[in-house]
């Protein structure tokens, strides 16, 4: 796992992800996943690095942060 990707993801999620109502979570997670990938690419971080840092995949990780699913223990 890339330490750089892990640090980027933690910081990005802290700045960009907030809890949303359940009926909005899936759509918001899709939007945030795309935005995160774009922002990471701009910093030279590959999508595979982000997915590895997120453990269960970036979309699932962001959905969990939105309150949609349980986050697995780290």
Report on this structure:
By secondary structure, this protein is mainly alpha-helical. It has one domain. It has helices spanning 3-16, 25-42, 47-53, 58-65. The longest helix is centred in the middle third of the chain and has 18 residues, at 25-42. The two termini are 13 Å apart. This is DUF768 domain-containing protein.
Summarize this structure briefly.
The protein contains four helices and no strands. The protein has 74 residues and is mainly α.
Number of extended strands: 0
Rg, rounded, reads 11 Å
Determine the strand fraction and express it as a percent band: under 5%
State the helix count: 4
Low-confidence stretches: none
Question: Strand-and-helix sequence, N→C?
Answer: HHHH
Shape label: elongated
Question: Could you say which structural class the secondary elements and strand pairing correspond to?
Answer: mainly alpha
What level of helicity do the residues show?
A: 55-70%
Main sheet record: none
**Distance between termini?**
13 Å
Organism: Aquisalinus luteolus
Protein name: DUF768 domain-containing protein
